[in-house]
Amino acid sequence: MKNHPQLPPAWADRLLKWLTPPHLREELLGDLHEQFAEQAEAVGSRKARRLYALEVLKFVRPFYIRERLRHLARLSEPDAGYARKEIHRPAFFHPTDMFRNYLKIAFRNLWKSKGYAAINVVGLSVAFCICLFLFLTAYLQLTYDAFHRDGDRIYQTYFVANDPERVSKTGGMPLPLTPALKSEFPEVEAAARVLSGRKSSVEWKGKGFEKLVLMTDPDFFKVFTFPMVKGNPDVALLELSSIVLSETTARTVFGSEDPIGKPIQIGTGPDRKQYIVSGIVADPPLNSTIQFDALTRIENRPGYASDKDNWNANSSSVFIKTAPGVAQASVENRLKPFILKYLGGTIEGLKKKGARPDDRGDLFALRLQKLADVHFSREINGGKGAPIALIYILIGIGAFILLIACINFINLSIARSFTRAREVGVRKSLGALKQQLFVQIWGESSVVCFVGFGTGLLLAFFLLPTFNAVFQSRLSLDHVFEPGFLAVILGVFLLVSLLAGGYPALQMARFNPVEVLKGKVSLKRPGILRNSLIVTQFAMSTLLACATVVAMQQVRFLRQQPLGFQSEQVVSLPVGSQSDGRQVLQRLRARLADDPAVVSVTGSGVNLGRGKDRVSSRSVFGFTYKGKGVATDWLLIDYDYLKTLNIKLLAGRDFDPAYRTDSVSRIIVTERMAKALGLKNPVGAFIKDDSDTTGTPMQIIGLVQNFRLYSLSEEERPITMHLSHSEPIHYIFVRVTPGSLSVTMDKLKAVWSEVAPQSEFMASFLDENIDAWYQNEAMMSRLFSVAAGIAILLSCIGLFAVALMVIEQRTKEIGIRKVMGAGVAGIVLILSRDFVKLVLIALLISLPLAWFGLTMWLNNYAQRIELSPWVFGGIGLSALLIALATVSYQSIKTALMNPVRSLRSE
Amino acid sequence: MGRAYLGEFEELVLLTVAVLDGNAYGVTIAAELKQRTRRTISLSGVHIALYRLEEKGFVRSELGGATSSRGGRRKRLFGITTAGRQTLADMRDVRNDLWNAISSPSLS
């Protein structure tokens, strides 16, 4: 599944092999590859890959297909020459003539009813295209980490603590756990600690790159399946100073040189160390939880020596692989005494707090999480996993849309079947069997389905870049040709053709030839089924429409929540790990001090919103104050933080360089923090942890209004701000005067290269970063609006076609009504009434459902909008109007027709 | 003309085979045509023309010459046959006659 940019796309080669006869393949592929190599040289491999794909698509030509079919025919009929001479074979044994007749009739039929065929094909292809995107997204998510061999034997370990306040699960493990596990549990075949953390600088020959260095154990390659491109996985990480690079990293750092055995520098300042490259491993695939650019031993972690026997400092994740045939439950049971032995203190502590054992009898336990579930377990991995509900919603929406297209298909086929009743009658009286008729008619629908699917695939091919851009995904059609997904597509295709083609075919095959030939069946009306299908369609469309509107309202509401600070005109600059944040801040301050466009400059340990580096960190400090447990966000700031962000000071003062002790033991707290501490007048108060007897107490010097440090979907905590010089500054904020934003940005860029030459300039606007907090919700609402739009469109197309046919059948009736004196308005009313009734029933079903579902969804949010009946009423009304408008074209046209013409026909 | 019909594109390909004498195969023919005609030329089209020409007996072919950029696959090298040369010459004569028969000097 890997992509080699130097090679042409594999799917194109597969397509070519499928299209061309084998005796031509070698020369054709050879020519194509040779041309690709030349083009890659001339215009770059990206463009060459695209050109290659186009070139292959041009092989879809009658010439090659004929040759290919000829070859296939030769394969299936080894004695073709003999068979052709034998003319007098009965048709029953030699059905090709019949098939030819079926095909001919099928195409004649399609041609005769071009309009209906087009509606079917358009509907199916749009639906299939959307489904392809949605299912592909879901497939990628559901196959997360599925590429590891023996995945069913790989587990992540996690702690469960049944704290009386809140049951907590965490994947952070103490360092000594892994060696202890390995020595005491023979059933643990391999175990590796995994510590990823921030990006660090990787330097070779003076050139630096920001790369994600993962620290782990030599067992990493035994637990996981990350194939080595160069080097031996058994020994690659045996040396403490070894480093294994991913293919991409090796290429960016070393270019075309062979990196094996070369020394590179990792890290900055005192943590800087030299490593020797010992191997190259294939890039981790997109759907891998474990992502890295380079691998080193965990022993190189700063402070490893002091923590290596500390059972109370949790840091790394641990993955183990059990021996074959070992049950998860038996390992978990054996872990109970193990935990008692090493972490008995934690259990005692929980007991003292009044914790009760859970249903498995544990206060505190070490348990195993299956690798397949790791991607979805947000709790264990600090909220980083994907919400599995979202994936099911995606699949659900895909299925919805497909179903709507299928319903169109069924309705049209049934309606059309009466015009073909005579053909069925004639075939039956000539001796056609029921099965033969079924196969014929079902085959015809399958042809339409197939064309629809093909068009859908083509559509998907062209729309993919747009889809990726709008939904920030990295889908590629390469995955479509993976066997697993091909099976899904094939399944969907069979299901659709069986469902949409099978039912009408069954109906038609059942026609009684005598009645049909007498012309009786055409009078029967296919009432209930067609009507309920239309109801289903409209119910689903309005459901999606309601979800869209409410999701959009909620997103807008979230964005308009007061932040407590002013995010406009502030530039956020990530410092990166190559430079010392405090130094950079000082230099930047000095350079910008007399710039009239710059209001103030400050630094912080935490970014606000989601910046270009996509990093988010949180440090929470929990302590006991006068017997009360308090948990607060522990935020490192610098001078002018309040001024830069316009945070309102309610009492006391801001940090001031004039007071020397400000940077040691003074803090500023938010209102919520003051409340948590139970202080009415917090300024001047001293606070400290009850159990801490030696440390200096912290004095509160300022009180500010509450402000948002994290997005609304995360828990909001009280905030405590401090100046401590022992913590590093990661972000710099610059407030500029209104109207000078873009000019200052250019200037900042120039200054940045002087004050922080090693760090990349990744400035972004704070207000945009804040918007990025609600990306998930924004994406959801976009997705819903696209899906709802398509659902409504497809439903209307279907309704239009059905109306067309129904009204056509009633032309005579209308003619008589007009002759008898009915007015145009009356006739339009009569014609539209039936459809309006259906839409009303659909609304009665869908609106309560939507109300219920959306209330459930909104309950997930601490800050939510109230559902307004007006929204639902409005959507209902517009659904009704849209349906009316769709039908009205036909009904008005018919009502205006001259009755003489309609009555004279026949 | 009692000979087999030769389309415009086939004629171009046949001429190119003659030009590239000895080194004529899909990629070189396509490249040569692209450069000379400034049209978009697809490999699939060139190959179809070559196979048709071979069927009509204007070119003959043999397999040979695998290189690493082709992934070790051999190429089909084409050469023009006597019949091919004869057809090209005939077509040229016909055209020359027609050109000579045009009276208006502005067209030449």
Kindly list the characteristics that best describe this protein.
heterodimer; A: 906 residues; alpha+beta; 5 domains; 6-stranded mixed β-barrel; 30 helices; B: 108 residues; mainly alpha; Arc Repressor Mutant, subunit A; two-stranded antiparallel ribbon; 4 helices; 2 strands; 53% helix
Describe the protein.
The complex is a heterodimer of chains A (906) and B (108). In chain A, helix 7 runs antiparallel to helix 14 (388-417). In chain A, 52% of the residues lie in helices and 15% in strands. The longest helix of chain A is centred in the middle third of the chain and has 38 residues, at 434-471. In chain A, the strands form three sheets. In chain A, strands 16, 17, 18, 19, 20, 21 and 22 form a seven-stranded mixed beta sheet that branches. A six-stranded mixed β-barrel of chain A has the order 5-6-11-8-10-9. Chain A has a four-stranded antiparallel beta sheet with strand order 15-23-14-24. Chain A has 906 residues and is α+β, with helices and mostly antiparallel strands. In chain A, a hairpin with a 2-residue loop joins strand 5 and strand 6. Chain A folds into five domains: 1-88, no CATH class; 99-141 and 386-524, no CATH class; 151-374, no CATH class; 527-560 and 775-904, no CATH class; 570-771, no CATH class. Chain A is built from 30 helices and 24 strands. Chain A starts with 9 loop residues before the first helix and ends with a helix. By secondary structure, chain B is mainly alpha-helical. Chain B has a single domain (8-100), classed as Winged helix-like DNA-binding domain superfamily/Winged helix DNA-binding domain (Arc Repressor Mutant, subunit A, Orthogonal Bundle), CATH 1.10.10. Chain B has four helices and two strands. Chain B has helices at residues 8-19, 26-37, 43-55, 82-101, and strands at 59-64, 75-80. In chain B, helix 1 (8-19) crosses helix 3 (43-55) and helix 2 (26-37) crosses helix 3. The model of chain B has no long low-confidence stretch (mean pLDDT 86). Classes of the chains: A alpha+beta (906), B mainly alpha (108).
